[in-house]
Amino acid sequence: MISKNILAIVAVSAAAFSGVASADAEYGAPYVIKFEGNRTRAEVMAEAARVPSTRSIEPAGSRVAAPLQSNVQTQVVRAQAAEALRLGKIPSGEIGM
Question: Where is the signal peptide (predicted)?
């Protein structure tokens, strides 16, 4: 009695899964992209060969800007920064303005 029930369940599930498999094969899976190209393999290979000549291997933003020329002495700038810090014009530590 139990084996008949198990056999019936297996038969029903096999029939259900076989229908799903044929529907998937007939209509295609939803995640499959259908693509039809109109270029030849030689055209694609020629384009791929041109890519290295048009691209830079240098990452964007990796160049360092040239130093700015200034006529102010380093000692004067340091003295002004120390004075501003002493007067409280420059925040120090985690306390902001």
Answer: 1-23
